[in-house]
Amino acid sequence: MPRAKLEVPCKLEKLSVLDPDGKVDAKLDPKLPDNDLLKLYKTMWQTRLLDERCLHMQRQGRIGTYGPCKGQEATPLGVAYTLRKDDWYVPSYRELAGCLWRGWKIGRYMLWWGGHEEGSQIEEGVNDTPLAVPIASQCQYAMGIAWASKLRGEDTVCAAFCGDGGTSQGDFHEALNFAAVYKAPMVMVVQNNGWAISLPRDKQTAAQSIAQKAVAYGIDGIQIDGNDILGVIVAAREAVAKARKGGGPTLIEAITYRMAMHTTADDPKKYRSEEEVKAWEPKDPLTRFRKYLAQTKKILTDKVEKEIETQIREEIDEGVRIYESYELDQYAMFHNMYETPTPELRRQEAELRDYLENGRPDETPTEQSPTASERV
Ligand SMILES: Cc1ncc(C[n+]2csc(CCOP(=O)(O)OP(=O)(O)O)c2C)c(N)n1
Ligand SMILES: [Mg+2]
Question: 214: domain range?
Fold first, then answer.
């Protein structure tokens, strides 16, 4: 047998529609109605301000460890925009913008970061799954949801998200492999923000792109500018339409950047340079979208902007009020895993009850006690 080139049919593309100056490629412009553009802008801006508020509240001890999404608003929002209400949205933990678009309530979102079980409850009529921290675990749920919709003869699509780090998990591979073989209506979106905590992208994979991993599964892959909401919408629309028509999954790699720390438990200055962060500032998805709406489309005037900001701030304040006035079941975490709690869970519940009713046990730190950041 002679040696020959292995011909592998594949469709791999790269796409960007809106440049950092807010100028749009006219041939690719999805031409969204003005109303939708302003609604998207409001959600993106609200995400930015809510994210900031959560960060401050963590510093004040009012919520727990927080994972910011600053800089990563355009991809989840653009994808959510292309979904129908009865489609499924399966986030990891930096997809707040799409969650707000899908109808998640601010107060409940805060409950999740406050460490309360009630934060995982999805609003009535919203086909989403709760935030997922076990990396890439949500890819498996998404594949199952997509396959179930196919088996039931429904035409709903499931969009799932994970990070660049998530692509090294077995779950990511298993989910995409299965979805591809069974042509499950799934859209797999990887938010490649260049880092998995302190691990840079070039140590994550030797592959030139994450999009090219699609070739191994026999599906289409596309790399997009994840800070360009219009480009995200164009790519996601095509992927969703293809999945809905029975064409199977698409892998979308969205190139973006996490402008803040991984979570409030780490210090990014320890592993990435200030210059790198500075270089990403001009590509900010929010300022880019603002320029497009104000200068190119001329629909965002100072007056409209002020009105939107007032509305956003009122809604966030109301969300915080709701979050802080929830009547919480302190013991819910012991009751939601098993129908009959195990003896160990019962022991822990009794310990917590004793702690809450009778005060603090002696917590004098010993020499060996790790600090919070050492434990992460
Ligand atoms: C299965 C699993 N392993 C390890 C961790 C600890 N961990 C939390 S976030 C993270 C990095 C994830 O990086 P990436 O997928 O790129 O997402 P990003 O945080 O950059 O959005 C790791 C290793 C975890 N949550 N789950
Ligand atoms: Mg990452």
Answer: 12-21+28-197+207-325
* Mutational test site, ligand 1, from 95, 197, 213, 376, max ligand atoms within 8 Å of CB: 197
- 38 vs 42: CA distance, rounded Å: 6
Q: Are strands 88-90 and 195-196 parallel, antiparallel or unpaired?
A: unpaired
Cβ atoms of 158 and 183 within 8 Å: the answer is no
> Among residues 215, 226, 239, which one has the least CA distance to residue 164?
226
251 and 293 fall within a common domain: yes
3-state secondary structure of 345: helix
- The structure's pTM equals 0.93
pLDDT of res. 362: 61
Characterise 366 by phi-psi region: left (phi > 0), alpha (psi -120 to 50), beta (else). beta
Q: Which two tokens stand for residue 325?
A: 């006035």
Which tokens go with 312? 């956003």
> In whole angstroms, how far apart are CA 302 and each of 73, 229, 244?
22, 22, 40
Number of domains in the chain: 2
Active site residues: 258, 262, 271
In this structure, are 117 and 182 located in the same domain? yes
* Per-residue pLDDT reduced to its tens digit, 137-157: 999 999 999 999 999 999 999
The predicted structure's pLDDT at residue 366 = 52
Judge if 249 and 340 occupy the same domain. no
Q: Are 309 and 334 contained in the same domain?
A: no
Is residue 256 located within the same domain as residue 339?
A: no
Domain co-membership, 157 together with 267: yes
Q: Are residues 140 and 272 in the same domain?
A: yes
Residues 355 and 220 in one domain: no
Pick the residue whose CA is nearest to atom 19 on ligand 1. 196
Q: Is residue 366 part of a domain?
A: no
Asked if 308 contacts 42 with a C-beta cutoff of 8 angstroms, the reply is yes
> What span, in angstroms and rounded, lies between the C-alpha atoms of 99 and 105?
9
